[in-house]
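Writing this down once: the sequence line spells out the residues, with the fold written below as integer tokens. This is how one looks:
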Amino acid sequence: MSPMSSSSVSVRSATEVNADIRDLWQRSGECLSPQDEAEYQRLLVEWAAATAGGSRTAV
């Protein structure tokens, strides 16, 4: 079982989460407040969970 709690597991696609991340950066004027930083970190965890099951290609 994953060490992440079930509340942090993504049910949204990586594309949806990425859109929220982009929106957060745009709304913040690209300078995150402590509250925005906490939201950003939560979104990164959600995005990572959403991309974990996808196939990866070599660069």
User: Anything to note?
Assistant: Residues 12-50 form one domain.
